[in-house]
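Box 4.2: Ligand-aware structure prediction
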Amino acid sequence: MIHPNSEISEFDIIIIGATGDLSIRKIIPALFKRYADGQIPEKSKIYCLARQKLDNSSFTQKISQQNKIDFKNSKILKEFFDKINYLCIDIKNPDSKNLFSLQKKLTKDRVRLFYLATAPELFGVSAQFIRENNLANNKTRIIVEKPIGKDLISAIDINKALNSYFDEDQIYRIDHYLGKETVQNLMVMRFANQLFEAHWNNNSISNVQITVSEEIGIKGRESYYDSYGAIKDMMQNHILQLVCLVAMEPPSKFDANLVRDEKLKVLQSLKKIEDLNEICIGQYGLKSDDEDQIASYTQDSKQHDSKTETFVALMAKIDNWRWAGVPFFLRTGKRLKTRASEIVITFKPIQHFIFDKTEKNNTLPNQLIIRLQPDEGLKILLMSKEPGPGGIRISPSYLNLSFSDTFKNKIPDAYERLLMDVVRGNQTLFMRKDEVEAAWSWIDPIISLIKKNNRLPETYIPKSWGPISSFDLLKRHGFEWCEPDY
Ligand code: BG6
């Protein structure tokens, strides 16, 4: 049963680049799930545009083959597939018959989404195609997805190209991390509870750690990944967005531009990293032992002398009143020990400890651990008295809120939430162009510093927590990584 707040109006969505991975594995399944849940109004339509010569049935077959769609649900799947209209159109050189048919089919006054599921170089061309062929109406919204550029200059170019055809309030830049339920919950946890705010600053917090670790390698995405690497693929967007949500000031109300203004201020307050020792990069090597045979990055990418990093860890500082002096340790990598994304806020130790300090573990500082995935939840490490006679023995224990247990089956995929927000015209969870550009302005000098010093990635063993230098980075500052406990 759909909550009344989730109702949306009828819409048409036009996916440009519909045969690509993003469309087939993310966008269309997300639309299907929303449809199966009864959220997508009956008359809405899905137009899929790509260059391949396919018809509706071969296209829907392709979708079925590439996804694990529940075929037991075939009636609803059939109904959903009936909404799909495949049109063979090359946006650079559109066939007039198919273009005319699309122009005719689109419903005049309905919300119209264009998802540019293409390479970023084609965002501008796609926007031009939409405008010049009169495909836009007055309810048009354009969706693009990261990577928005490879550096500041290319990001500015992409934004300019999009803005020359559409206004900023029509452009929805997706960072799918913002669509994750637990990421949104970060804002609710911070701004709907009195408990944390008084301590959410450098008086009480000793350090913040954000880990996004993945077990997978890069197979299947070699050519993209080798020209990006972990800094551009993950740090510039997903991880910096998490930093923003942890560090931002409360906006005066929950309004898209006010939220994004506050996030922008965080990005603009990031201190430029000038010391190469605060950055650690790695690349996964080969694992070949009795337990596992895992190919190295250079084998996966088929680039035998590739210097692309598949791991990055760094210490960021936010130069503002609230966060001055608090290190933010950020790391992400492929082929790590486990798939886990966590934010760990470690509080300062209490000033005056009245109990026996000699017992191991009884003076651990409080920690708030926000698990983004998997097993979404929130844990607070508290010190408590061990039950039993014989004086006071203190030991760490957890207050544990598991969202995955509490809201079983209710955690939708990020794209489901984001797509429905575009239909509603709510830009809160989408990146504004100034945010994207501010993120690149901080990232570009990091990449230049690495290049200038010819720093090469350190090899790490697959299924580990990354290169040794990542541990040294924290040790030098008197900290250690909190390893996700799964
Ligand atoms: C994408 C990156 O944006 O996010 C991928 O390009 C990465 O390299 C993926 O694997 C991680 O997303 P998630 O939702 O699986 O954590």
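In the box above, the bound molecule is 6-O-phosphono-beta-D-glucopyranose. The chain has a mean pLDDT of 92.
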